[in-house]
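Office hours follow-up: a student asked to see two folded examples consecutively, so here they are.
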Amino acid sequence: MILVTGASGTVGRPLVELLVSAGLKVRAVARNPSALPRSVEVVDRPVLEGVTGLFVNPRAVGDDIDGLLAEGKGVLKRVVVLSAVNVDDDLDMQPSRWRGDRNTEVERAVTASGLDWVALRPTTFAANAFGLWAEQIQHGDTVRGSYAEATWSPIHELDLAEVALHAFLDDGLLGTRPVLTGPESLTQREMVSAIGDAMGRELTYLEMAPEVARAALVGRGFPAGFAAGLLSLQARSVGVPALITNEVRRALGRPALTFARWASDNAYVFGRAA
């Protein structure tokens, strides 16, 4: 049985579906169990009885990771942890910490646990576009944001879920920290344009001054530290192609899915508000 933490999240939900399709038993720690297949056992906290594999979402597990791993000694055969490409950077350059992610601490705990492990280090999630731009696109054709020429290599959550499945089923990734990216470097302007293409709409990205963009993010509910960190990372990437690796192809035997594919898969989310 595989225990999936954060099972109704961006990566956890498709991973659960893939595990079930592969014929594996799944126990899921989830806030929204209605989104999961009926065959899944849903719990409100990690229960390791009968579990041989553990998928760790740092935001879901947080400071409980040490106790969970200690409980798993002699039980777990493999731990796959969702980490991040910037996990070794200074903490002030990891803006997702302001939203609850403890990638550095959790990855270090897993890799030092003495258990068999795989640490997945993805770049920016394509799904981050929901929080940054969906509301604006639902209400008009102009997206206001920071650093139009800042670059990302956004990764589709389906690729992350498939690599996580591969990490459970195959020994080839054991003891590694694969850096997982999308197949192309895109600017913020190009990403918004791709969403528009998927919707059959022409979207415009209007660059705001950094201080205005920071205030706008905070006004929409993002923590101030997150907004400052995000803008700092974007500023440093302007004119610099985003990192692209071949790790998705190496694991899955196919190219990583494009952002255009992600936009097509999720165009309905960006539809105009009623």
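And the second, which I mentioned at the end of office hours:
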Amino acid sequence: MAYDVTITDHDIPLAVRDHGGPGDPVFLLHGLGGTLEAWDAVALPGHRAVALDLRGHGLSGDGPWEWDRVLDDLEAVVKHLDLGNPAVVGHSLGGMLAVLWARRHPECPAIVNLDGLRSAESAPDNYPGLDAATRDRELAALKAAFDAQAAALAGPLPDGLGPLFPARARVERDGEVYARPGAELLAAVRCSPEFRDTIPLLRQVTCDAWVVIPTQDPPGMPGGELMAAFRRGVRRDLAGLPPHLQVRELEASHDMLAEQPAAVAALIGGFLA
């Protein structure tokens, strides 16, 4: 049975859910704006699955988003729960952290990266096969949408919008409800080179790794030509990986954890087995 624990002997409090299990440890990392609850429906029998609220998310504490400091957070959880040398599975932002963890820990047994390769708002040459005018227009529209979202999250959530966020993803201050993570953390992540493109770092990983990429447009995001070109760029840049880095495609969108938890669990379990 899963139990929750808050680690307090660290720079910031870290909220963790230990799903238990008698097998080898697997560390589960959610995406930007998510919480550890994203993994509740992903059953991994035969493994000790442990999920974390990343800093600034869920019930974990706030702190500046610096990638090395976030990796230090992960180290604190591994040490506190005596996980030894866990495999690491991450979705989106969590997948990027899995790559960085494997670079820090070459002895890591394996990682799984679930569409944590690059931001949809990436460098212009990452959208091959799209004419420059269309690309630039659609990228400008995407940036405007992300800017508007960030601005909306900078203040209190409007009446009626708060309940749309899971309880773990909102906080009350001075009688107002705010979303977590806040605008400052979102901006720090969004502007970082690691978030904009992790594929060059993936090529430095020496442990076994599976990369799972979606075939469908993200719901609620302008798709069409830009996202099709984005997927072409990802496939292009994953070509020719060394044999220990394997790529799989899943008939899902970026929200594959919510859409197909059983299929994701089967992929993870099959790889780790």
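Two things to take away from it. The chain has one domain: 3-125+187-272. DSSP finds nine helices and ten strands in the chain.
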